[in-house]
Amino acid sequence: MDTAVTVKDVTQVYVTEERATLAVEQIDFAIQRGEFVSLIGPSGCGKTTLLSIIAGLIRPTVGTVTVAGGIVNGPSTRVGYMLQQDYLFPWRTIEDNACMGLEITEALTKEKKQGVLHLLDEMGLLGFKDYYPAQLSGGMRQRVALVRTLATEPELLLLDEPFSALDYQTKLQLEDLVVETLRAKKKTALLVTHDISEAIAMSDRIIVLDPNPGRIRKEFIIPQEIRSSVPFAARELPDFHVLFRLIWQEFGGVHHE
Ligand code: ADP
Ligand code: MG
């Protein structure tokens, strides 16, 4: 397997007028092509900071990030970013929102538009293409955001707690849809979440971050049986509960030190 992402010795210090915050310190990890990795850790441990650095939105204070062999110097179409909020434009239709990424990178050809319609179809949204975001449920809006992210055909998908604003049922359905879609398209993904179950159900590997400053605490490789299931079914497997307890203890350790 070849490497899709390398994060090397990354440290981020935020400097404001009042203070300097060491957000993450000496982060080192790599993601293989096609791998699904989750970063978990408590609020404020630097998860969003790391994703912003990998997306090229923040230049790290120290260290380098490489995506598909090239050093990250700024935002690029090689990386797609999906957030907790969908950031759909309320005055644009679903189809026009889904085409947004292609439009701003001036890549919207007739063929690509056809691709977007196909993705909307895959996500069960084709019948809603002429609707406006306010007419859709939260889960549907996140599916539109996923289509918009996939439309530019990024090699790497960064997912920053994309399900945390959704109700539990919708979240479970979307987990399955995302995993099935990314597996079928052989995409590399890095998911940030504070939900241990979600991380186990969706990933090939979990990286646990320690807070203040964010550092890598431990890595867990997800057993094959869980990986080859869709997230909903994975939650039923005996290994799932064993792993949940192990990671839960790891978090417990953080709180009691
Ligand atoms: P997480 O996503 O894990 O909740 P963040 O990456 O958002 O964590 O934040 C990590 C730390 O960096 C926190 O202490 C936060 O207050 C601080 N931080 C994040 N963004 C900024 C910023 N733009 N300026 C100053 N401090 C920041
Ligand atoms: Mg965050």
TrEMBL record:
<dbReference type="InterPro" id="IPR003439">
    <property type="entry name" value="ABC_transporter-like_ATP-bd"/>
</dbReference>
<dbReference type="GO" id="GO:0005524">
    <property type="term" value="F:ATP binding"/>
</dbReference>
<keyword id="KW-0547">Nucleotide-binding</keyword>
<dbReference type="InterPro" id="IPR017871">
    <property type="entry name" value="ABC_transporter-like_CS"/>
</dbReference>
<dbReference type="InterPro" id="IPR003593">
    <property type="entry name" value="AAA+_ATPase"/>
</dbReference>
<feature type="domain" description="ABC transporter">
    <location>
        <begin position="5"/>
        <end position="236"/>
    </location>
</feature>
<dbReference type="Pfam" id="PF00005">
    <property type="entry name" value="ABC_tran"/>
</dbReference>
<dbReference type="InterPro" id="IPR027417">
    <property type="entry name" value="P-loop_NTPase"/>
</dbReference>
<keyword id="KW-0067">ATP-binding</keyword>
<keyword id="KW-0813">Transport</keyword>
<dbReference type="InterPro" id="IPR050166">
    <property type="entry name" value="ABC_transporter_ATP-bind"/>
</dbReference>
<protein>
    <submittedName>
        <fullName>ATP-binding cassette domain-containing protein</fullName>
    </submittedName>
</protein>
